[in-house]
Amino acid sequence: MTGLPPSPWQTRNATVRAITPEVPEVRTYDLDLHGANYSFRPGQFNMLYVPGVGEVAISVSSDPAVPHQLRHTIRAVGNVTRAMTRLAVGDTLGLRGPFGTAWPVETVRGDDVVIVAGGLGLAPLRPVIYHLIRHRHDYGRVAVLYGARTPADLLYAHEYDWWQAAELDVHISVDVATPNWRGAIGFVTTLLAQLPVKPTRTAVFTCGPEVMMRFVASGACQRGVPAERIFVSLERNMNCAVALCGHCQFGPSFVCHDGPVFSYDRVGRLLWVENL
Amino acid sequence: MTPPPAPGSSLWMPKPALQTLIDRLRADGYDVLGPRMADGAITLAPLRSVDELPRGVRDEQQPGRYRLTLADDGGYFDHVVGPHSLKPLVFPPRTTVLQVLRVRNGWEFRTPDPPRPKQAVLGVRACDLHALAIQDRVFLGGAYRDPEYAARREGLFLIAVNCARSAATCFCVSMNTGPAVTGGADLILTELANGFVVGVGSARGASYVGGMGERPPTAEEEAAAAAIPQRAAAQQTRRINTATVHDTLLNNLEHPRWAEVAKRCLSCANCTMVCPTCFCSTVNEVNDLLGTQTQRERVWESCFNEEHSHTASGAVHPTTKSRYRQWLTHKLATWIDQFGTSGCVGCGRCITWCPVGIDITEEVAAMEGGRA
Q: CATH number for the domain including A220?
């Protein structure tokens, strides 16, 4: 008899070290893997497991250069994420990962980078922001265009000044303003339309609602950015995370394995087909 | 003692030798499974005696219809494929992938050692051997491999049978997957009136023949055996154009036919359950009452269920139209992009076992512009 492949279901313990409220229904969980050998690339995700309830795919939202300070920003929206709201510091979860493709920060070295995020879509992009700040001189102009529904929904708001000070060009807008809001009002696609870009020297990374990403990507294409330099991060139902369960298929792709980060030239046509 | 026959050789074997073969496999610790009548169908079930085989039974299959009839001239393998394929033997409908125990300071996560059953299957058809080869690519050919599939696959001993007839729903000829068995089995039987012509498919298969009254086949027996799957092939009327189907489907994602078939489709998932290659699964939590132990159980899932595509922002495939399109385009087109092979072997099960008789070949033909 030959040896069997290792089980892709093997799960490890991750202890909650801190829980930070972010915006309504959204918390950031700091997880401790107890010294386990672990690293991730920006844009990858983990399967977080609440025993007795289930698993959920969550992008890592912390600094890839500090993998032992592992953070996930999570909206309480489904069975598992709601169960996570009942966790306290010191409680232990299961974790598998990391899985999936990454934002190609190495291949766009030397270029301008435009990050376009909507709502919680900023979370999978924050590792990119940290990477770009750490290696700021390896890149050209870097812009962060971020939109949320209301000022109260702006994620990581306390970090924007720091990002700006680190020579990132940060533009924020909200769909619906409050009386004391002094920033831009409207969709992030408008911010992108107003941003000067050098199309052939620019890479676009976008994450947010799929409809937003479609218009960001097509808008960037119209500005002359090649589709193969525009990257989106797709959300599908991840159950196994190892391309065996079939749930996350999107055309020819298994989003858990071939994604979640895709170049727009690979998925652009399919993204415009309803309910695909 | 004569040396065992070489793989690739063939011999003639008298009919009673089939019982000897079953006995030998059972004596070696194999669970022998074969075609047996149950619940009005020919199913795959444990087999001890050739007397349990559905001798002389024929299956009449049509879209949404399956009936058994008894013929006067009775062969052991006059039937075609029933609802069961090899799939549940290697990819069980329910299995435990993780055991979770609450311990001090957290959880103990244990991946159970997969069972390593020795299973011998009598009467496997060419389409199902091709389906197994496709599942090998799905479960063993990627970056992550499924340990339970690997364990079960290794213990599989396959005695194939060349189909003597085709059902009306069969279209393996067009998929280039049958009806003649061309490989992937340990032994390959062709049933003649007074015996079997046995093709030796593997060294392991060779080790189970000999001493059962075999002799070299005569030229007439060889010719008769070769003609049998050819006759079955000639009976097939359904077909899919494999040269064009990939592009046809992917270039017609907005074709009005998707909405039309969705009016008939019940989204019941029968087609995916009987399909020998459909591999979707979901892991469920099974808890004990104290909340100290959990089993993570993997069960078969179907893209026809709304939960299959569930995300935080709703189902990606909320309509029957979107689910049927996912199933058909995956089976016949994107499967090729993913695994370098079609996901369809032309067994016709999805046609027969569809309660409303939706015919995959007819839907493809409509997309091709033939019968919209």
A: 3.40.50.80
Last residue of a domain, one of A68, A99, A130: A99
| Same domain, yes or no: A174 and A54 | no
- Contact: B106, A9; criterion CB under 8 Å: no
Edge-to-edge strand list for the sheet holding B106-110: B106-110, B94-103, B293-300, B281-287
Distance from C-alpha of A251 to C-alpha of A228, rounded to nearest angstrom: 18
| A244 shares a domain with A118 | yes
Output the DSSP codes for B277-317: S---EEEEEEE-TTSSEEEEEEEE--TTSGGGGEETTEESS
Residue with tokens 């727009």: A264
Neighbouring CB atoms inside 10 A of A63's CB total 18
**How far apart, in Å, do the first and last CA atoms of chain A sit?**
42
Cβ distance of A247 and B317 shorter than 8 Å: no
Q: Are the beta carbons of B287 and A15 separated by less than 8 Å?
A: no
Residues A66 and A100: their CA atoms lie apart, in Å, by 19
CB-CB under 8 Å, B321 with A235: no
Same domain? A95 vs A119:
no
Residues of B in contact with A35 (CB under 8 A): none
Write down the pLDDT at residue B226: 97
Nearest one of A73, A94, A102, A100 to A248, comparing CA atoms = A100
How far B136 CA sits from the closest chain A CA (Å)?
A: 12
| Residue B370 tokens, joined | 């033939």
Is B3 part of a structural domain of the chain? no
Residue B77 carries which DSSP code? T
- pLDDT tens digit sequence for B102-152: 998 889 999 999 999 999 999 999 999 999 999 999 999 999 999 999 999
- Whether A68 and A135 have beta carbons less than 8 Å apart is answered as no
Write down the pLDDT at residue B286: 96
Locate B40 and state its tokens: 């009005």
Residue B73 in this model has a pLDDT that exceeds 90: no
Could you give the CA distance from residue B6 to residue A263 in angstroms, rounded to a whole number? 52
Look at residue B2 and tell me if it is in a domain.
no
Digit-coded pLDDT (tens) for A198-207: 999 999 999 9
Cα–Cα distance, B46 to A10 (Å, whole number): 33
Residues with Cβ within 8 Å of residue B243, at least 6 apart in sequence: none
Q: Kind of pairing, strands B57-62 and B65-70? A: antiparallel
Token pair 């376009």 in the structure block, residue: A116
**Domain around B226:** 10-234
**CB within 8 Å of A122: residues ≥ 6 apart:** A146, A155, A156, A207
**In this structure, which amino acid lies at residue A112?**
D
Whether the pTM exceeds 0.90: the reply is yes
Residues B210 and B252 grouped into a single domain: no
pLDDT in tens, B203-216: 999 999 999 999 99
The β-bridge relationship of strands B31-38 and B119-124 is parallel
ipTM summary value? 0.94
What is the layout of strands, in order, in the sheet containing B187-192?
B10-14, B195-200, B187-192, B156-161, B119-124, B31-38, B41-46
Q: Final residue of a domain: which of A99, A134, A161?
A: A99
By residue range, what is the domain housing residue A32? 12-99
Closest CA to B366 of B265, B275, B255: B255
A58-78 per-position pLDDT tens digit: 999 999 999 999 999 999 999
CA B372 to chain CA centroid, Å, is 30
Residue written as tokens 């080869």?
A: B133
Per-residue tokens: A2 = 């030959």
Residues B314 and B340 in one domain: yes
Chain B residues touching A75 at Cβ < 8 A: 312
